[in-house]
Amino acid sequence: MLDNVWLIPLFPLIGFLINGFFGKKIKNEAVIGGIGTLAIFASFLVSCGILLQMIGLPPEQRVFEKVLFPWIHSGAFKADMAFLVDPLSCVMIMVVTGVGSLIHLYSIGYMHGEEGFYRFFAYLNLFCMSMLLLVLGNNMLVMFIGWEGVGLCSYLLIGYYFHKKSAGDAAKKAFVMNRVGDFGFLIGLFTLYWWLGSNHNIWTINFTEIKAASNLLPYGGVVTVATLCFFVGATGKSAQIPLFTWLPDAMEGPTPVSALIHAATMVTAGVYMIARMSFVFIKAPETMMIVACVGAATAIFAATIGTAQNDIKRVLAYSTVSQLGFMFLAMGVGAFTAGIFHLMTHAFFKACLFLGSGSVIHAMHYALHKGHLHDDAQDMRNMGGLKKAMPITFLTFFVSTIAIAGIPGFSGFFSKDEILWQAFANPFHGGLNIILWGIGAVAACFTAFYMFRLVFMTFFGECRINAKVKDHLHESPLVITIPLMVLGFLAVVGGYIGMPKLLGMLPNYFEHWLEPVFALANEYGAKYAHSGGHHNPALEWGLMGLSVVIALVGISIAFTMYVKNTELPGKFTATFPALHRAVYNKWYVDELYDYLFVNPCKAFGQFLWKGFDVIVIDGAVNGVAGVVMAFSGVFRYIQSGLIHNYAWSMAFGVVVMLGYYVFK
Amino acid sequence: MENLNGYLIISAILFSIGTVGVLVRKNAIVIFMCIEMMLNAVNLTFVALSRHLGNLDGQVFVFFIMTVAAAEAAVGLALMIAFYNNKESIDVDDMNLMKW
């Protein structure tokens, strides 16, 4: 099975080619959707086979490389189209193909009747192929193809409703911001390649070879530069400060896209990349600190914005940014396993939340359409009391909300608590650790608050939708609810494979599974870690209890404000109008970026257009033409058309030339 | 060949008459004949010098020139007929379409 790893990206590619080229002629939605879903499901089955085979191998043999064909061989430079299967990529392909299959299935129902149905599935398959290349590539260049490919698909799918200007703008914004990050990725790649090559004559971009050579890398110095560049790439793809503003705007795309690309898979590429190169990152303590700080800052910053948004998808978008911040926090404190674990559980519950919100929007849209109303189908202020109309959606949504809020027994608790504990206890950043933990804990409180605010506003209380269309609200069809139920189930039980040792009920399978991948990084890290570290079971119990209390506090605030005493939010807004306005307007980050980058760029563009292009470029071209015109305007009179004139001038010329030679 | 000068003088006179004819006459056929005269003046020089220098290359050249002149006559007369069909004139002053 391992030898057939290349089939995993191949199936979605075939699906993309069929739907992309013939989808318009096929027309039948069931066939198009079936092809798309089966393509990724086939990859899922292959992934399962590979996972089972990997589990059967002893841990130290769980690395497999498959060279499909030589790609670029030029002098010392060598890049093959080759795949790397190890425990880390196994986790990623399972998440991508598993969650991907469910979302494809869901899309058949959700996208029913949309114009360009085939286009949607073609892009979705293309995305899956790129993402699988990204996680399976055994060298940085294959990873980079995937990295660019997912960016492209993200652009195409955000702009799916391209006739809407806002969708086109959002797509462009996402693409440009990602390009900024990709630039960093490339510079990092070059730096690492150049340094290893010129100093140790190891010209390689292959992960396994870099890993083997990583003991030659110094601590800090050039590694800091390279890893910081890689981290810039990660912030672009994974929507971290400062490149996070594209993700909330990406909600212009259809909801399954938000679930698959902008929650479960693509945005985690940055986290994956850091985990893949953990043995390089850990050698740059400064970078690790920056990663941790940026992660924590993003976690709290996005969480605060999430508390004031009214668009259901926007709340989830900021929640995603915030959760990605947690993952980066984990990476930055050296808790690679915890970060990947959170990546996985987050994929389950956030995909479920997005798909659930899609189900709600679907129902709202249908009801409003029936009543010929133009209310916003995504605005939570128009919702409320949907619990009765949509029991399955509510149940799965509620379960996932509990998971993300961090209530014990659900998947999010295990992963988030692990991150917070390691942020506190990992001995890398000295006094900073406790601050990182504190920020993370406050962000977790905000998470619980805004998620329960969302649930209360959407599913509880009075139904605020126009009374005329109340009866049109109904549960979504099975093709939508089945993925919800599967994901909801995973959101509950997904955490049990990575239970902390402390609870002691189950061994931490997940940590053992990833141990060989991060062993080297941990070894490097131990060399400069501050001695000690807090490995005190009592303390861990205490912090775990504290984080549960924090989550409950967040939930109870939300309950008080949005169920018990619904005037409170209004009063709060009236008391602190400036604060509310700032949070509601996303701390004016977009405006700040407009002021700092977008407007100067536009002004520069205007200058290049009106100043440089019109005057210099056009001036040069038109000037040359003008000079030629002026000369020819004089000389054209020589061409009289009279044969005698020509004959005379010829004779005259001959006489002059002969005269010259005769009298010379 | 004490009378080489005579041949060359006649040739020069013929060439000059031809040149003046080309420059001053308006009838295309006359101009054409003048060109032929210039060619033949050159031929005469070639033959005379060939004989004088005892080298046959000049006479070979003359055959080439006569061949070219024949071809030129065929094309030139055809052009003139075509022109006459269009304009009912073979005056070169009427051939003035190729100008600014």
Please give the largest β-sheet of chain B. Answer: none
How much helix, percentage-wise, in residues of chain A? over 70%
List unreliable stretches of 5+ residues of chain B: none
Count up the domains of chain B: 1
Shape of chain B: elongated
Terminal CA distance of chain A: 94 Å
Distinct helical segment count of chain A = 26
Q: How many β-strand stretches of chain B?
A: 0
Helical fraction of chain B equals: over 70%
What kind of oligomer do you see?
A: heterodimer
**What proportion of the residues of chain B form beta strands (DSSP E)?**
under 5%
pLDDT < 50 stretches of chain A:
none
Radius of gyration of chain B: 17 Å
Shape label of chain A: globular
The overall pLDDT average of chain A reads 90
Secondary-structure class of chain A: mainly alpha
Distance between the termini of chain B: 53 Å
How would you describe this protein?
The complex is a heterodimer of chains A (664) and B (100). In chain A, strand 1 (64-74) and strand 2 form a beta hairpin. Chain A contains 26 helices and two strands. Chain A is globular and about 120 Å long. Chain A is mostly helical and 664 residues long. Chain A is 73% helix and 3% strand. Chain B has 100 residues and is mostly helical. Chain B is elongated and about 50 Å long. Chain A binds chain B through residues 636-637, 639-644, 647-648, 651, and chain B through 19, 22-23, 31, 92-93, 95-100.
What are the salient characteristics of this protein?
heterodimer, A: 664 residues, mainly alpha, two-stranded antiparallel sheet, 2 strands, 73% helix, 3% strand, B: 100 residues, Helix Hairpins, 3 helices
Q: What is this structure's SSE topology?
A:
The complex is a heterodimer of chains A (664) and B (100).
Chain A lengths: L6 H20 L2 H28 L7 E11 L2 E9 L1 H24 L6 H20 L3 H19 L6 H36 L6 H7 L8 H16 L8 H4 L5 H10 L4 H8 L1 H4 L3 H22 L5 H21 L3 H35 L15 H4 L1 H15 L5 H15 L6 H28 L18 H16 L15 H20 L8 H28 L3 H8 L1 H8 L4 H47 L7 H20 L2
Antiparallel strand pairs in A: 1-2
Helix pairs in contact in A: 1-2, 1-4, 2-3, 2-4, 3-4, 3-10, 3-15, 3-20, 4-5, 5-6, 5-10, 6-8, 8-11, 8-13, 10-15, 13-14, 13-19, 14-15, 14-18, 14-19, 15-17, 15-18, 15-20, 15-21, 17-18, 17-19, 17-20, 18-19, 19-22, 23-24
Chain B lengths: L3 H21 L3 H26 L3 H31 L13
